[in-house]
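Posting for a labmate who doesn't have an account.
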Amino acid sequence: MKDPKDLNQNDMSRVNSSMNVSRRHFISSVGITAAGIMAGACSKKDNPAEPEKKKTYPEGSSKVATANVTSYNLTVLKSSLETMFTEIGGVDDIIKTGDTVGIKINLTGGNGSARSYETQSGLPVGETYWTNPELLRALGQLLKDMGVGKIYVLEAIYDWESINNYGYKQVIDSLGATFIDLNQTAPYSDYVQRPVGNQRLIYSSLTQNGVLNDLDCFISLPKAKLHKGAGVTHGMKNLVGTLPVPCGKYNAGGSNRSGIHQHRTQYDGNPDSNLCRVIIDLNHATPINLVVNDAVKTVLGSEGPWNRDEWALVPKNFNRLIVGKDPVATDAISTKIIGYDPMAEDKTWPFPTSINYLKLADELGMGNYDLEMIEVVGAGI
């Protein structure tokens, strides 16, 4: 898989061809398997087939489930999620009756960019670079079936049109859930200081909405995409959207979180690598209990349509959901599924300008990024 610059210099048919390695591999494997069956039929008496040995995984390995999903049909989504929850060993250890559960969605860039890109691409924003509302609905219905007490849908929104004009409000209302704009202090009178812990890298504490202190279970529900500064953006990177711009600590005087992109004095002085370290701090302050990464219909290129040239968005269907309780492992498998090596060296694709923060998270004991330490169940990679 090459970088987004190569993708944008070719037509969509070449993009689909170059990204469809798994399909070609499957077809090739079928041919090889068929040949093997024929050969086996001729020599079955002389060389009886041995039972296939199941791979064993080391102690401390992680389990990630994937599912083949080709549309956002609610019935299919809900059934797929339910199956994947079982395949990762169940979720009753992290979600219990009466719990308060927060679901962090991703509506990056706000209504203006979304509406413009929908017009340009002819595709709903939930099928390109935002969390899909029907996937939110399916997850929320499953949580209700489990008997959770309260569901908060969380995002630091740019504008209320993002919630009201794309189906999210209808989904939230149908679930009886509560939306919390993490940019604001409500339902509390002020922000709270949330400690990062003794493995802090950039921040010792984070100024955030107090609702994050009230959760029994925290779920990250993003698109699986690339990111211009951090390399990839899946479950872990989604937490950048928990930082409130109005508090003034992360925006460097601007209208977005430009401040977290400009740390030039720490470590090697590379702002992109320090952005990656902010991601680690965010995940220490708010550990993710469950990741549901959406690579059914997404984009390659970058995180949003404001990036141009080699980072311009290219719609891409991978037809996969990825679920896990280890956010590092789940993001590693998501990276692999969208065509990149999650174990890539620093400053190589898909991390061309930064450290590989999945590797750093692994080194800090936050989860597994090594593919040999991740058992992939369900549809596989």
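Reply:
Got it, the structure tokens are right above this. The longest strand covers residues 290-300.
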